[in-house]
């Protein structure tokens, strides 16, 4: 199949145009028409003192070190001061993980809600967790003892939740915003009373909330793009906290002026800054007390296209990779259930970290430059929500052997991420993943048993397939077995060709001659170079394009060809969604089991012609009639 198309159309522009992109900013303080008196002072770049020390406390690996599974797409995640990671998925399930000196360890699993977990928050001290769902329920967990301590039935559909109590306060105040009304309900999580302590009336329905522990203020964003402050004691606008008298003197209207709303809201640990990732693709950072804008970072698709045309290698992608990522962005825009991207601060407040099309950016806000771009090489994952752990795992001190002294526990900064349409969450650290030969021992941990219904939705069929045609097949490879469900009713000729070739041993010993990570793996050529192979009838045969069978998921089995009606014996299995192949290649099956084997083949090292350096072969193919 052809490689993915790019977003750049061939409009006849000359390749000689090199200078594309914004010009450098003018140098302040020097007029071009005036001759400076005396020797000119050198222009100093604004630098952050001890920047390298701060960066040493942040993840730096280009690839994620480990990933772990849920049964459904991961949508929520949080890191706590008590060294716990909590993840939640679209099916309402929660998992507790404990940070270790290196990596994490599974602790406990809860089925929290019957619907998706729409909101999740941890208290400032890391002691309590709260979740809310559209099933009109709220759950409270004791994080340290990993136990559910309260269930609350709500009279409304919630949109977000946030703890808003200070240290040693008698009441565990939990704020829950109402999705369809401009109200925030304040509950006491200690007594479990279904009646709220107070109801805050807001201008518009609230989307996100965060509690500023330092200034004892609840910060909210609403459906109009406004940012508002509420005191945790009076539940009104706070006094003696803000340096402004009127909101009109601030930049808290910035998103409303841009006619956008927030995807997320985050606060710095010192409470002096807040950040929103807007639906317009911009990351905005404010000073909390003054409400003035500090920084704006444009990450819209228009800006990404400009970077792709520019010459800066940091932001430039391979044409195939760029086209695939832009196609994924269009799918992301349509999916309302996908996790919302956010922007988080490091513990010093000097750096902001947020996911983009290109990877996860670490930006130095003091000098206003990109310090790191994490995960750029991970071209099959679109990271969306992140959480940062910079503490030190609270475990017992390890005693070394005689004469070696004691082994001190080092910091292990870890970035926790979830991705678009993925049933996994990912961990970035300061270590690159280990290179192992066995895929089952690699960085993608299979801690859940995949369900057949999740891997292969069963299409309704009107009639039973012919007894001469296979309904399924198992491709036995040198890296493992891949079970395929076939579609003889929709593609009888293609399935017959595949069935007879398999029975006759035509595919036995053939190599996967073309493997492209983030695209597909191809085989079925007796010559091993992509130019050979024929059908069971001795030549080529026509396509069997069915509109309902598309390249809309990974694990799609499709015929390789060199144009319409040129099918022979070669076929391929996709590893990502490939919509540009629809209508051009016959889809005649799906992977039902063994996707881990497909992924293992996908990750083998290849030469410049996409041929694996070490042969991966089909041992044989057994068919099921």
Explain how this protein is built.
The chain is mainly β. Helix content is 9%, strand content 32%. The protein contains seven helices and 37 strands. Strands 32-33-35-34-36-31-30-37 form an eight-stranded antiparallel beta sheet. A four-stranded antiparallel beta sheet has the order 1-29-28-25, with no helix packed on it. The longest helix has 16 residues, at 319-334. The model is unreliable at 8-36, 402-406 and 452-466 (pLDDT under 50).
List its salient traits:
625 residues; elongated; mainly beta; 9% helix; eight-stranded antiparallel β-sheet; four-stranded antiparallel β-sheet
Task: State the gist of this model.
The protein has 625 residues and is mainly β. It contains seven helices and 37 strands.
**Helix content range:** under 10%
Q: For the report, how would you describe the main beta sheet?
A: 8 strands, antiparallel
> Roughly what fraction of the amino acids lie in strands?
25-35%
Structural class: mainly beta
Strand order within the widest sheet? Answer: 32-33-35-34-36-31-30-37
Number of strands: 37
* N→C terminal distance: 28 Å
Average pLDDT score: 87
Tally the helices: what do you get? 7
Q: List low-pLDDT spans.
A: 8-36, 402-406, 452-466
- Using only C-alpha atoms, the radius of gyration works out to 28 Å
The oligomeric status of these chains comes to single chain
Shape: elongated
């Amino acid at each position: 199949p052809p490689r993915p198309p790019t977003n750049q159309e061939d409009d006849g522009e000359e390749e000689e145009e090199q200078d594309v992109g914004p010009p450098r900013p003018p140098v302040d303080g020097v007029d071009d028409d005036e001759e400076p008196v005396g020797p000119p002072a050198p222009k100093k770049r604004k630098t952050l003192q001890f920047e390298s020390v701060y960066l040493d406390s942040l993840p730096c690996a280009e690839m994620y070190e480990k990933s772990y599974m849920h049964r459904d797409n991961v949508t929520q995640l949080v890191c706590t001061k008590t060294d716990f990671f909590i993840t939640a998925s679209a099916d309402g399930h929660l998992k507790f993980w404990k940070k270790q000196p290196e990596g994490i360890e599974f602790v406990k699993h809860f089925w929290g809600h019957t619907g998706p977990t729409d909101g999740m928050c941890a208290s400032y001290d890391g002691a309590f967790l709260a979740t809310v769902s559209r099933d009109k329920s709220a759950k409270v967990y004791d994080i340290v003892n990993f136990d559910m301590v309260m269930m609350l039935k709500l009279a409304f559909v919630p949109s977000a939740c946030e703890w808003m109590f200070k240290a040693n306060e008698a009441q565990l105040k939990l704020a829950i915003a109402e999705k369809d009304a401009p109200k925030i309900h304040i509950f006491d999580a200690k007594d479990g009373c279904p009646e709220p302590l107070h109801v805050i009336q807001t201008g518009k329905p609230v989307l996100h909330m965060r509690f500023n522990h330092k200034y004892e203020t609840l910060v909210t964003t609403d459906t109009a793009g406004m940012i508002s402050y509420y005191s945790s004691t009076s539940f009104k606008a706070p006094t003696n906290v803000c340096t402004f008298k009127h909101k009109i003197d601030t930049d808290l209207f910035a998103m409303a002026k841009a006619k956008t709303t927030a995807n997320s809201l985050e606060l710095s640990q010192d409470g002096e800054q807040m950040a929103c990732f807007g639906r317009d693709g911009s990351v905005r950072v404010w000073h909390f007390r003054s409400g003035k804008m500090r920084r704006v970072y444009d990450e819209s698709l228009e800006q990404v296209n400009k970077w792709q045309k520019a010459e800066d290698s940091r932001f430039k992608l391979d044409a195939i990779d760029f086209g695939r990522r832009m196609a994924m962005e269009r799918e992301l825009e349509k999916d309302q259930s996908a996790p919302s991207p956010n922007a988080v601060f490091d513990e010093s407040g000097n750096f902001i970290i947020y996911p983009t099309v290109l990877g996860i950016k670490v930006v130095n806000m003091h000098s206003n430059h990109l310090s790191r771009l994490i995960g750029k090489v991970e071209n099959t994952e679109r990271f969306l929500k992140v959480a940062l752990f910079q503490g030190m795992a609270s475990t017992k001190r390890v005693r070394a052997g005689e004469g070696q002294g004691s082994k001190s526990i080092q910091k292990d900064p870890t970035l926790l991420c979830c991705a678009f349409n993925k049933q996994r969450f990912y961990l970035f650290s300061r270590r690159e993943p280990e290179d192992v030969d066995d895929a089952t021992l690699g960085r993608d941990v299979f801690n859940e048993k995949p369900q057949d219904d999740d891997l292969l939705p069963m299409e309704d069929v009107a009639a039973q397939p012919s007894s001469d045609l296979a309904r399924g097949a198992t491709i036995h490879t040198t890296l493992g077995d891949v079970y395929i469900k076939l579609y003889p009713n929709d593609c009888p000729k293609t399935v017959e060709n595949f069935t007879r070739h398999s029975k006759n041993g035509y595919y036995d010993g053939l190599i996967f001659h073309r493997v492209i990570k983030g695209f597909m793996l191809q085989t079925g050529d007796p010559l091993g170079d992509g130019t050979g192979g024929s059908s069971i009838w001795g030549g080529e045969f026509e396509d069997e394009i069915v509109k309902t069978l598309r390249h809309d998921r990974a694990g799609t089995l499709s015929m390789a060809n060199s144009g319409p009606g040129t099918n022979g014996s070669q076929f391929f299995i996709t590893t990502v969604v490939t919509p540009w192949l629809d209508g051009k290649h016959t889809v005649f099956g799906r992977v039902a089991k063994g996707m881990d084997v497909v992924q293992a083949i996908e990750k083998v090292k290849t030469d410049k012609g996409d041929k694996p350096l070490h042969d991966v072969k089909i041992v044989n193919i057994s068919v099921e009639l």
